[in-house]
Amino acid sequence: MPIRFPEPLYQRLKEWSNEHNFPMAVVVRGLVERFLDEQQHRAA
Q1: 27 vs 15, 21, 22, CA distance in Å?
Q2: What is the pLDDT along the chain (44 residues), one digit of tens a residue?
Q3: pTM of the full predicted structure?
């Protein structure tokens, strides 16, 4: 699933990922999972 980020946000994510040796996809996947888990807990 392609995701388009504004260029400044993309650069921030890319820099953070490189500094911490994480693939950008792993970071995004983790954030989406955390968001969905929080939303599920709020709905319960």
Answers
A1: 12, 10, 7
A2: 899 999 999 999 999 999 999 999 999 999 999 999 999 999 98
A3: 0.83
